[in-house]
Write a structure and sequence with these properties.
The protein has 8 helices and 4 strands. By secondary structure, it is of the alpha+beta class.
Length: 221
């Protein structure tokens, strides 16, 4: 089984797939692709021009959520999608909450201006840029953090008592926030803050973090 993952490692979507592969023990080849400067013919691989894409034995699968679900079918164990219908729905919902709710705020308002643009231009983010990002975190992202905090309840994982795609999705998104110097306020969101510390200590995510921090983690918190 030849797997090739194409994308930029600092993308939370690419990282989500990489951590799922690590948790399942799936070997794959990683080919860096920047969505800002993609290789010629990239639209033939990814019709929407997005990352990641997965090549599997000559066939292409697009979109991180689709890729993760596909890999679950290829290698069902250890299971990262719950078997019970309602638990399955909750896990996929949390994934979508992150991908469709947190990322559209976090990427343009926090990660791009505070981390990515300074790396690409070699110009540090100004105090005004950082202040605007902090405002986005406190006013736009905080309510979403509050929801995630309630969904954890008293458990260590978002769904049941086992690691799932929900946990990998939340954990991956918070890597980008920590690169930007922001984290869930432990006083306001104690369950979520504790969860992020736990999930980032897992070898699957810790390896990605260690790889990224020298370039993107100058404000890591």
């Amino acid at each position: 089984m030849a797997l090739e993952l194409l994308g930029a490692g600092v993308s939370p979507f690419v990282r989500k797939v990489r951590t799922l592969c690590a948790e399942k023990g799936l070997d794959y080849t990683y080919t860096p692709v920047s969505p800002f400067n993609p290789p010629e013919g990239w639209r033939e691989v990814s019709p929407l021009g997005k990352i990641p894409a997965l090549r599997h034995d000559g066939r292409v699968v697009n979109d991180s959520s689709v890729i993760c679900a596909y890999l679950e079918r290829i290698q069902p164990e250890p299971a990262l999608y719950p078997k019970a219908p309602y638990d399955y729905a909750r896990a996929v919902w949390i994934e979508e909450f992150v991908d469709g709710g947190i990322f559209p705020i976090m990427a343009p308002n926090v990660f791009l201006p505070v981390v990515l643009r300074p790396v690409l231009t070699r110009t540090p983010a100004t105090a005004e840029v950082i202040q605007a990002a902090e405002k986005a975190v406190n006013e736009q992202l905080a309510p979403l953090f509050g929801y995630l905090d309630t969904q954890l309840g008293d458990g260590e994982y978002f769904v049941g008592n086992a690691l799932s795609i929900a946990d990998l999705s939340v954990g991956s998104a918070f890597v980008n926030l920590r690169h930007a110097g922001f984290a869930a306020d432990a006083a306001r969101f104690p369950r979520l803050a504790a969860f992020v510390r736990r999930i980032h200590a897992r070898p699957s995510l810790a390896a990605c973090i260690a790889e990224e921090k020298p370039v993107f983690g100058q404000r890591w918190v």
